[in-house]
Automatic annotation (TrEMBL):
Domain (Hydantoinase A/oxoprolinase): residue spans on this chain: 189-471
Organism: Pseudodesulfovibrio methanolicus
Domain Hydantoinase/oxoprolinase N-terminal: 3-158
Record protein name field: Hydantoinase/oxoprolinase family protein
Lineage: Bacteria, Pseudomonadati, Thermodesulfobacteriota, Desulfovibrionia, Desulfovibrionales
Length: 567
């Protein structure tokens, strides 16, 4: 039995799923999300679910958490010492993410050759300055470190004042830029390393608390995975060193949920209407789109791979307001709906008023809507209808804008680049608590087939439960220098002059398989896919002196089973 928990902005959803010929929801629940104490929401959801199923049958828990996202949004992150060596080119100060930011002389070229040694004097001064400010977590980033991590490793040794990777006297954690991925974008790598450090301590305290809570519940044997923004999961132990990957995992859970619940073949729009926001995703030919370069966190572009999802401040608990003659909804959530004990009328109260749903105390919704409307010289019916119409129109407008933005650029799905593809949605899928109540209003706006699947209210948790572990690596080989390097694994070996692209593909698959095996994840050979392979001759004078080889291999995001199987 698999457990899935999605910590949302308003509710924490949980499901237990029996895996057989086709998955089936054995139990589900919703509990309030307490942002000041996310662990209590997780444990309450777990306790509720375990009261309905045999806990000895549980083998795995997949968890989507807003912890890292909230910490960044609320500026509750830790101070980080960022030390970089850039060499020639754009001044790194143009994209500095924090005050303890130090640029050290030294450079590596695009082939991985050390052009200029790192200034040990400047490095020592930078480390002393960070320590003087009480910094305990550091990011070490060197341009072209994915070809040669020499400078990043030297920064780490200096920061830790040690020779061992495992023993640090003066730092609690160091992120090395080359271990974040193989892409060469230096500004994105700096930002990603910074955020990885900034949320590291908070995230690890949460991870430890989750493990302790599971032990107390008799679930110490259960394997725990954390959802990533790319629509995959990573084992909890690995997530401890890569907490930045858990940012924006909630929207990814909704995309994976709709994949698990429905069979999508065409260009489609997915709307996850929650309590605080509506997440909008677009599928091209049945496949979700991805942010190819990586997501932006605040004003900083990063290397964090993610599904393409746009969020707007429209949800069931979004507050209703009146501005001039216009009734508006959101973007603020000022507490729960009146029907659920709140004090401010919301979209859910309006939906109760017009008869689209019956949530909580419907009479309380009607009374509150009438009172709020009367104070603004409106009837309750006009206020409620106006709120529902405004929410539906705002969702459609945001969807149209997203589709136009997508169509202005190359279209990348989790599977491939679709050359010349223009998205023309043919169907709308709705999920989230208010989905059924908003179905008719949204159908009137989109004028497309509109489907609300079974279990729509806990689709995110279903997506979390069924999402498979994903991992990727990039292999680089320079046969002139006889070097093979896999940045994310810090793996390096010598290769012969005759090493070729087929050798690189084979080694990439083998290394990915071994990495996942070390994480306790069994990988079928056919699930390891080569997504990029290139080999360029290097020429000096008129002679070929070697090959520059690059191979990218990954397990793509997906679900282990769908509810359509066995039907």
């Amino acid at each position: 039995m698999l457990l899935g928990i999605d910590v949302g902005g308003t509710h924490t959803d949980a499901v237990a799923i029996d895996i057989g010929d086709a998955p089936a929801v054995a139990a589900s629940c919703k509990v309030p999300t307490r942002h000041h104490d996310l662990l209590s929401s997780v444990t309450e959801a777990l306790t509720t679910i375990l009261g309905q199923v045999d806990k000895s049958a549980v083998t795995q828990l997949n968890l989507s958490t807003t912890l890292s996202t909230n910490a960044i949004v609320q500026n509750k992150t830790e101070d980080v010492g960022v030390i970089v060596s850039a060499g020639p080119g754009i001044d790194p100060h143009n994209f500095m993410p924090c005050k303890d930011f130090h640029v050290i002389d030294g450079s590596i070229d695009h082939r991985g050759n050390e052009v200029r040694a790192l200034s040990t004097r400047q490095l020592a001064e930078a480390v002393d300055a960070c320590r003087g400010n009480g910094v305990r977590v550091f990011a070490a980033v060197s341009k072209f470190s994915t070809r040669n991590p020499r400078h990043e490793n030297l920064i780490r040794r200096t920061v830790c004042n040690c020779k061992s990777v495992d023993v640090c006297e003066h730092a609690d954690f160091v992120t090395l830029g080359h271990q974040l991925g193989g892409a060469l974008n230096f500004p994105r790598r700096v930002a990603t390393a910074y955020f990885n450090c900034a949320v590291w301590r908070l995230y690890n305290e949460f991870a430890t608390a989750v493990e302790e809570a599971l032990d107390e519940m008799g679930l110490g044997h259960v394997k725990v995975n954390i959802l990533k923004a790319d629509g995959g999961t990573m084992p909890l132990p690995q997530s401890r060193t890569l907490p930045v990957q858990s940012i924006f995992s909630g929207p990814a859970a909704s995309v994976m949920g709709i994949i698990a619940l429905t069979d999508i073949f065409h260009d489609s729009v997915i709307l996850d209407i929650g309590g605080t926001t509506t997440d909008i995703a677009v599928f091209a030919d049945g496949a979700p789109l991805i942010e190819r370069e990586g997501i932006d966190i605040g004003s900083h572009p990063t290397l964090v791979s993610a599904l393409k999802v746009h969020s707007i401040g429209i949800g069931g608990d979004s507050a209703i307001s009146v501005v001039g003659p216009e009734v508006r909804v959101g973007p603020n959530r000022l507490g729960p709906s009146v029907c659920l004990g709140g004090e401010r009328v919301t979209l859910t109260d309006a939906l109760n008023y017009v008869g689209a749903c019956k949530v909580g105390d419907v009479a309380a919704s009607r009374k509150a809507v009438d009172a709020y409307a009367a104070a603004r010289t409106l009837t309750g019916e006009k206020l409620a209808q106006g709120a529902v119409a405004y929410a539906a129109q705002a969702i459609q407008d945001a969807t149209r804008a997203l589709v136009e933005e997508i169509n202005s650029k190359p279209v990348y799905t989790i599977h491939e680049l679709l050359e010349g593809k223009k998205i023309v949605p043919k169907k709308v899928y709705l999920m989230g608590g208010p989905a059924e109540a908003m179905r008719e209003e949204l159908f009137q706006r989109f004028q497309l087939s509109t489907e609300v699947p079974a279990n729509f209210d806990v689709a995110n948790a279903i997506g979390a439960a069924l999402t498979r572990t994903t991992w990727e690596l990039e292999l680089f080989a320079d046969t002139q220098r006889h070097v093979l390097f896999i940045p994310t694994l810090s793996y390096r070996e010598n290769v012969p002059s005759g090493y070729d692209l087929d050798d690189a593909k084979r080694d990439a698959v083998n290394q990915l398989t071994m990495q996942l095996d070390s994480m306790g994840v069994f990988l079928k050979a056919e699930d390891a896919q080569i997504t990029h392979a290139s080999s360029f001759n290097m020429v000096e004078g008129y002679d070929r002196v070697g090959r520059n080889i690059r191979v990218k291999c990954q397990v793509r995001p997906g679900v282990i089973k769908t509810f359509g199987e066995g039907r």
